[in-house]
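Tutorial, part two.
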Amino acid sequence: MPVLLVHGAGGGGWEWNAWRGVFAAHGFDVHAPDLQPASQGLAATMFEDYLMQVRAAMEALPRPRVLVGASLGGLLAMACAEAADALVLVNPIPPSPWHASLSQFERPAVVPWQRDARLASTRRAMPDSDDASALFAFRHWRDESGAVLRAAHAGIAVERPACPVLCIASAQDDDVPPETTAALAGALGASLLRVSLTSHVGPLLGRDASAVAAQAAAWLSAR
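Running the prediction step on this input gives:
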């Protein structure tokens, strides 16, 4: 069964390296592309540009097919739920009205996460990762579209998915409160997996990433 893995803001398909191996071992056909900026550049990139990429990637896969998204990728996955036969949402940026629980920040046209990346700040953002993972992430962060982030945090309305949904919530997520993910899961009628002692990116990049991926794969296999 094909699985499309959608990364979060400022990242890339590399964020799913641990999940890719686990899912492949469970017999899934794994795809983890990088979201691409619009032809006019990151400053001109909109949420809809990423949305069209995810939808096109899903439509290229045979059914039944699975859509997995983390953070911004989780919101994109929910917005493309009609194209999926199952969803896995990892600390997803929540849609409207649950977006109201998120902290709001001013965003420039291009958020300079690559330009301003520091190993020390990367390490602080990844307290549950080993040194090698933090160094790899530090070298691979990318800048992000401010317009995409502003739109996501302003609230995107989505339809309730008709397919089975698993929500994964990190206990120590400072970006998307675990209570928000739990409330979203309840509203969607989704299964909820609470992951203790992990950060926002911990389920993908932390020491327990493979274990979390294995639980997600087992949930999918049971369905």
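The CA atoms of residues 169 and 178 lie 5 Å apart. In part three we will examine how such features are distributed along the chain.
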